Amino acid sequence: MNAADKEPVSIIVRRIEIDDVWFDGIGPLEVKAIARDVEMRIEKLSREKNTFDTFKLLLHAAMYYAAQAYGKTNSAGNKTKEDNKQLDAAIDKLTHALNSLPLK
To answer: Phi and psi (nearest 5°) for 12?
Structure first.
């Protein structure tokens, strides 16, 4: 990771300015792109929930992104468990095959 990845930026979401925003491994352009995505998500939520309460909309957006991260983490965890089961089965088959070989 280079030093530019930790360059703090200012972003504006729902007319709220947030200074000194940075995340490990995410550059300033990506942080600004994420802020735009959050702004669009909040606008969509505002229409869907028929509310302009910024605090509620921010909480809904936070829950949306938390659910997305949770889903990705769980699917990655399940994939790892599946892979481990397949690997264990392959090891069992190889062990059985090796044990059944006539060795001198």
So the answer is: -130, 125
Evaluate if residue 3 carries a pLDDT over 60. no
Neighbours of 100 (CB within 10 A): 8
- Residue 71, CB half-sphere, CA atoms under 13 Å: how many? 6
Helices (H), 5-53: 28-49
User: Is the four-CA dihedral 66, 68, 74, 80 of positive or negative sign?
Assistant: negative
Query: Does the model's pTM come out above 0.85?
Result: no
Q: pLDDT per residue over 25-47, tens digit each?
A: 999 999 999 999 999 999 999 99
Which sequence spans correspond to the domains of the chain?
3-99
Residue by residue, what is the 3-state secondary structure of 13-31? ECCEEEEEECECCECHHHH
Q: What span, in angstroms and rounded, lies between the C-alpha atoms of 16 and 8?
A: 17
